[in-house]
Amino acid sequence: MTAALEVRHVAKRFGALTALRDITLHVDPGEVLGLIGDNGAGKSTLIKILCGFHRPDEGQILVNGDEVTLRSVDHARSLGIDAVYQDLALVNELSVYHNMFLNRELVRWPLLNNRKMRRRAEEHLRDMGVDLPDVTVEVAKLSGGQRQAIAVARSVYSDARVLLLDEPLAAMGAKEGTMILDLIRDLKQRGEVSVIIIAHNYAQVLDVCDRVNLLQQGRITFDKKAADTSLEELTDLVVAEYRRRR
Amino acid sequence: MSETAAPARGLPVVGRALLDGFVRRREASVLLVALGLMFYFRAASDVFLSRDNLVNIAQATAPTAIVAVGIVLLLVSGEIDLSVGIVAAFAPFLLHFAIDYYSVPVLPAFVLALALSAFIGLVNGFIVTQLRVPSFVVTLGTFFAVQGLLLMTSHAYPVPIPEPAKGRFQTWLGAGPWASITWAVLIVTVFHVILTRTRWGLHTISVGGNPVGATEAGIRASRIKIGNFMITSALGGLAGIMEAARINTIDPNIGGGTTLTFAAISAAVIGGTALAGGSGTIVGALLGALVLAELQNGFNLIGYSANTIFLILGLAILVSMIANQYLSRLRRAGRS
């Protein structure tokens, strides 16, 4: 089977800092890949390369088996790759529905089609189970969890084929976290979307992912099916590295 | 929200809702200030609301408002332009050079002058976005550079309006009593719609509100900013040519320079545009320009000397800003 997204020997340096040394990974169509690793291991950098925000210094990226050079975020999006960033990339001054359609606005030239965007945003959030009385409020007025839900909703409903989620559960309460995990499970069941998800909660990772990769010091050091590994093994791996370094 | 307002005595619910809606609008406070000044000066001087004086106020409001439109776009996208006033002084000379030295017909010459003005904005935007120099410094530099160009090419002497530009062109552009304010209102309307109802406006707000996030969402921040610099310079050029048409001479020392820039920035800020980027209102800037014009004109009528007016103007700007801050805090409290 051709991977939906494949990365071969990708390296990225920022001046003297080497963020990624040699990354090789793949995610199959309909698969959910969990990416774990320490803070500073390079997870976010990898995500930003895959969504076209950064350019890699070395290596190849293949989408559906074809090698591509991601020129920009727009370009990656046109290939069906979309990301939820750790910083969420929401604009506080704009309303919920404008944020949900940011840079993908529905337009009835030359004006924005606000009514349609508002209706769609309401539908999407209701489908997701997000409880938000009014999509016209500024994002600045929302809680951390609500903001994150909106950032996730934005990507999920963008017709992406590959979704990159950088810590989508970080600011969430138990209820909202479950909501996002349910959403990922739904996506998995439909089998149309591949997901790469970064998370720190290994129990959640094992719960929702098909496969787990561990990223340590700019390399993938571990690649197993979620069914073949356990919470203990993952924890040991990460802690062992920490012990070794001490 | 409005449910809590319902039991209030006296005011009917509808009136209360209308009042709420009004106070929540960003332009509300400055509109109140503008109306307040109008009543005050009308009470202080009978001629304040006479036709002739209204023309004066309109003609003082228009150039400031037009330039302020650009300033608002830039402030919202997180930048500023200090050079726009000198571009306004330079543009009528460009018109004069094109017509009198290169025999270009009036309308193409007009378009050419605006295009060259926009080019100065392009240079500003390019240095800011590609070479990453703060816009305050960049436009300070272009201010002096353009001033140099202006004084070198004009030899610091005024020239008359070119012969072919006289007549209908001059009247329609600025010499007619209501010409300039009509253009100003038209431009304000168009750009208000652009800022609030189009992708360009939404992206302008995004770029100023969350520069990193906007870029992550795939918005090309540089393109938005360069575009807004070009719009500002072109509007500056237009305001300059209109002023020249109105005063019937092309003078390197009046109709532009720092005065116009500072008035436009004041108008934008009085109108309710934040310097921090991400929010602003173009209609507010028009009202801000009106407030400035009223102050200058009104105190003049009352009989203060031109020197005192600067002091009063400065204090008035501070007072209206403080009032604006206070009202916008009320507005924010009312909304949540």
From TrEMBL, chain A:
Keyword set, alphabetical order: ATP-binding, Nucleotide-binding
GO molecular function term, any single one: ATP binding
PROSITE patterns (UniProt xref): ABC_TRANSPORTER_1, ABC_TRANSPORTER_2
Stored Pfam families: ABC_tran
Residue ranges annotated for the ABC transporter domain, each copy included: 5-242
Signal sequence annotation: none
InterPro entries linked: AAA+_ATPase (IPR003593), ABC_carbohydrate_import_ATPase (IPR050107), ABC_transporter-like_ATP-bd (IPR003439), ABC_transporter-like_CS (IPR017871), P-loop_NTPase (IPR027417)
PANTHER family linked to this entry: CARBOHYDRATE TRANSPORT ATP-BINDING PROTEIN MG119-RELATED, SUGAR ABC TRANSPORTER ATP-BINDING PROTEIN
Name this protein carries in UniProt: Sugar ABC transporter ATP-binding protein
Taxonomic lineage: Bacteria, Bacillati, Actinomycetota, Actinomycetes, Micromonosporales
Automatic annotation (TrEMBL), chain B:
Membrane-spanning ranges: 28-45, 57-75, 82-99, 105-129, 136-157, 177-195, 262-292, 304-327
InterPro entries to which the protein is assigned, alphabetical: ABC_transp_permease
Protein's cellular compartments: Cell membrane
Membrane topology summary: Multi-pass membrane protein
Domain of life according to the entry: Bacteria
Matching CDD domains: TM_PBP1_transp_AraH_like
Signal peptide: none
Entry keywords, A to Z: Cell membrane, Membrane, Transmembrane, Transmembrane helix
Protein name: ABC transporter permease
Upper lineage: Bacteria, Bacillati, Actinomycetota, Actinomycetes, Micromonosporales
